[in-house]
What does this fold into?
Amino acid sequence: MGKDVIVACDFAGAEQTFAFLDRFTGSKPFVKIGMELFYAAGPDIVREIKARGHKVFLDLKLHDIPNTVKKAMAVLSGLGADIVNVHAGGTCAMMSAALEGLTRPDGTRPLLIAVTQLTSTDQQAMEQDLLINQPIDRVVMHYALNARKAGLDGVVCSPLEAEKVHEACGRSFLTVTPGIRFQDSDKGDQKRVMTPAAAKAAGSDYIVVGRPITASDDPVAAYERCCAEFIG
Ligand code: C5P
It folds into this structure.
């Protein structure tokens, strides 16, 4: 898989999701399914979107004891997801177990990426709630290195961190970056944003784009604009 635009389908159910995807008559965008849609629609939503010809990033951010994550990953792998993720905070042992669980009988497996620190966690929350007294940039980079050490394929990070992650973990270690906005679009609740073109220049491998596409009057045109800026 190369550079691509992943559309965050943050919808409340299957009906809305299919109505949205039906608008894409000439392309099959890479789809991100998050917790809301997965918990509302169930595992069939993954099978159905795959059957329609889309690639799927299943963004469920697993974090539990290694054995539980390994078994859960085997189930997600069986659904045919192309990318899945875990919290790097679950430790290297948990990430290695996740990889083991993901590997299918034929030796193939979805890509596995790690969430480092959530972008909603700031320095103050990390120190006060998690008792981590290190600069957040250092913690993010340490978690990215742990993910690489455990054999994962990449991390979810801000496009602003993509270059540093590649420097520390290597060019082939994937950076999947949300927080994307067009120059002229509303930031919403995202604080640190980049345009698709700037994310490309920063070296992001995949951009995750939600509302600039899903809330647009013309989602197909917005998606095509993202692709034109990011993939070229
Ligand atoms: O609508 P918007 O483009 O902000 O959507 C971004 C998507 O990426 C959402 O599904 C959001 O949950 C996800 N995400 C994020 N920041 C992270 C991790 C995931 O915005 N650090």
Q: What stands out?
A: The chain has a mean pLDDT of 96. Residues 22 and 28 are 10 Å apart (CA to CA). The pocket of cytidine-5'-monophosphate is lined by residues 8, 10, 34, 118-119, 156, 178-180, 188, 190, 208-212 (CB under 6 Å).
